[in-house]
Amino acid sequence: MKLNEHFFELKSSYLFKRIAQEVGAYKGANPGADIIRLGIGDVTRPLAPAVVAAMQKAAAEMGVKETFRGYDDDGVGYLFLREAIAGYYAQRGTAVDVSEIVVSDGAKSDLGNILELFATDAAALIPDPVYPAYVDTNVMSGHPIVYISGNEENGFLPLPDENLVTDVIYICSPNNPTGAAYSREQLRAWVDFANAHGSVILFDAAYEGFVRDETAARSIFEIPGSRTCAIEVCSLSKLAGFTGVRAGWTVVPKELADSAGRALLPLWVRRQTTKFNGVSYVTQRAAEAVFSPEGLAQCRENLAYYQQNAQLLSETLGKLGIKHFGGKNSPYIWLKCPNGLDSWAYFDYLLKEKNIVGTPGEGFGKNGDGYLRLTSFGTHEATEKAAARLLAQ
Amino acid sequence: MKLNEHFFELKSSYLFKRIAQEVGAYKGANPGADIIRLGIGDVTRPLAPAVVAAMQKAAAEMGVKETFRGYDDDGVGYLFLREAIAGYYAQRGTAVDVSEIVVSDGAKSDLGNILELFATDAAALIPDPVYPAYVDTNVMSGHPIVYISGNEENGFLPLPDENLVTDVIYICSPNNPTGAAYSREQLRAWVDFANAHGSVILFDAAYEGFVRDETAARSIFEIPGSRTCAIEVCSLSKLAGFTGVRAGWTVVPKELADSAGRALLPLWVRRQTTKFNGVSYVTQRAAEAVFSPEGLAQCRENLAYYQQNAQLLSETLGKLGIKHFGGKNSPYIWLKCPNGLDSWAYFDYLLKEKNIVGTPGEGFGKNGDGYLRLTSFGTHEATEKAAARLLAQ
After folding, report:
1. Alpha-carbon dihedral angle through residues A203, A204, A209, A214, given to the nearest 10 degrees
2. pLDDT value at residue A393
3. Between chains, do B270 and A7 touch, taking CB under 8 Å as contact?
4. Minimal Cβ distance to B167: which of A1, A70, A112
5. What ranges do the domains of chain B cover?
6. With contact defined as beta carbons under 8 Å apart, do A207 and A216 qualify?
7. Which of B5, B60, B277 lies closest to A119 in CB terms?
8. pLDDT reported for residue A40
9. Distances (CA, A) of B159 to B155, B171, B332
């Protein structure tokens, strides 16, 4: 059998393994230590009551002959959910047609699978630092990768570079891991660049629910010209705490086509209907409930809870004079390790001196070294305790 | 942007579209016609009460802080479910380790995605007639396809041919669309062949729940030697009526490796954890409930319901002297169109003279022409009415 050799070019995913090992070793030596985990990228608030009620109702329907549902026939999501998603965009003045929305089990799946639409030699522009899955999915399928630097100078929001022209451009805003969010004006530069060079922007909007700045975009489709150059991948993982429920969607505008005029939307629909059989009916009803007025209000309470944590951490770092990014439009805070420490040295300091676990920035790419990511997904109590420890001399 | 040109080599999936058009046209001209659909490949019985109860309980847990679950950490399925699946194999004397089981949202996803483990020039052996997704997924990624004939002479159960050696071998047993099921002895021939040539068998066991013959295998892992040459993809879609719930699994034995000794299990785990974020917790609890004694008994009642339909259809065709395959170990009945009619001509006859909708065999490949597929997924009442119409002169 001939295996895909690209799999053997993958770097081992050691980051979270090494963190677990170091924390485990410290706990072994200090069993009484009260360790606060601010490295976690997962939500902790329970699902909104409206969502739970919708799931239970849908589960009951599945147990009755008259209301049982089998395959989601067209495989792209029930119309009731695609209409709810289109309505969510419409509320903020962004027009997306239901036929352009393809429902899935989450952004991670779609971000990986959408690469199948492109030729193997289509190159990808990936920012550094970055969510590691962008890199791994490209390595797995042999796509050439070109990196663009996020750094202190550009506020971790790199802008187009005429020397770095690729077929595919990854943009995650608000960003994981840096928490930085592009303004509409900055995204306009990317859209113009992509249209000029025939590139496709893969816009990862998984954190749009955290946007608070009026000038920051929540969707690439707020930007004029985006419908001929962009695909948006979005998720309910953070907006509604669906990390354990699994629902997301991808928007491929009808106008998006290659230079020969071949549209991408039918290709994506064909990919999904051939290699995927749709999302659970129960999950689709749960997702629909997120977009009800009651559901959205409940989900926003959870977001506000995390935002309060982010604000406290940001204020605390400010008092300490530690330079940091994110936090305002994002659950992530990306801090510059003080005293010129590298990522792992500062990680060790926080673990051993403050009993706080962060995520070393080096795990997100070369440019992440010297940085550390904190998240706001802990409880208020744990976050307040962490802030007090950071401030204590 | 450079698109994947292989997408443009796909045949348009016209089969079910054309059926819908022909049925629609007939209904338009004959609005009073009482049409019975025996073409449907989807289940119709509601979920087992034990499954619904498990889903509702899990949904409630997700709404409470203390029992909320986020990401399924290792992304391969909760241990409780993998243990339940291993137990399901163990009940029939087949040993599968929990570490070899990777839980997914269904067999269709896994059958498509697992191809990523193989080099682009790895060739696939695909039987004709066949479930069309096998062909389409290989075309999409540019794998060379070699066909092997299923036909009346071999009972639609082709055996290895030394002239048809490939990297990957597709076997679906009990088969969709023909309903034919390999005996253990026949599968032994395939396993020996695969081991001799370093091929990998992709064994689609989605219909194992329908097996009644003692000589027919329900898993490729019942066959000695299979652990060095086979991957099994299975699903709860038919066993438990999960077509609208979405759960399945793939078993990759630890021993399965290429000639350089590189194991496939870690590659599959890496693929899934990079491009997939696990299955809904609620769905995993539902799947666990399938394998409880109560859940299995309830699911088997539904299977018996469909089997009764299959038996009636088979007996009816027997009385009419119409040659057919399947039906005993499968929800599908694959009949030879009488009087030398081609698939679409007999489809038309059934639609117009009997008001019964089947699926023309030609839609499953060249060798399917002259055949038609009936399914047992209708109600008893509809199936009995269809049988009476077939018998009426």
Report:
1. -30
2. 75
3. yes
4. A1
5. 13-42+294-391, 49-291
6. no
7. B5
8. 78
9. 10, 10, 21
B277 vs A243: CB contact, 8 Å cut-off?
yes
**Is-contact B56 A77, C-beta < 8 A?**
no
Cβ–Cβ gap B119/A44 under 8 Å: no
Which amino acid would we find at residue A179? Answer: G
Q: Is A101 helix (H, G, I), strand (E, B) or coil?
A: strand
Say if domain A12-41+294-391 classifies as CATH 3.90.1150.10: yes
- For A49-291, CATH gives 3.40.640.10
- Nearest CB to A4; choose among B7, B70, B118: B118
Compute the nearest-CA separation of A131 from chain B (Å): 11
Which stretches of A122-250 are DSSP H helices? 132-140, 184-197
A102 in Cβ contact with A145 (< 8 Å): no
A198-230 residue pLDDT tens: 999 999 999 999 999 999 999 999 999 999 999
Rounded to a whole number of angstroms, the distance from the CA of B156 to the nearest CA of chain A is 24
Q: B13-42+294-391 and B49-291: same fold?
A: no
The 10s digit of each residue's pLDDT in A136-161 is: 999 999 999 999 999 999 999 999 99
Q: Which residues of A touch B60 (CB under 8 A)?
A: 52, 56
- Which site among A64, A228, A262, A280 would you substitute to test the B interface, given the most B Cβ atoms closer than 10 Å to its Cβ? A280
Mark the ranges of chain B whose per-residue pLDDT is less than 70.
Answer: none
Q: Do A52 and B62 touch (CB under 8 A)?
A: yes
Q: What is the pLDDT of residues A22-48, one digit of tens each?
A: 999 999 999 999 999 998 789 999 999
Answer for the pair B224, B257: CB distance below 8 angstroms, yes or no: no
Structure tokens at B151: 């036909």
Measured between alpha carbons, how far is A67 from A150 in angstroms, rounded to an integer?
51
Q: What CATH class is the domain B13-42+294-391?
A: alpha beta
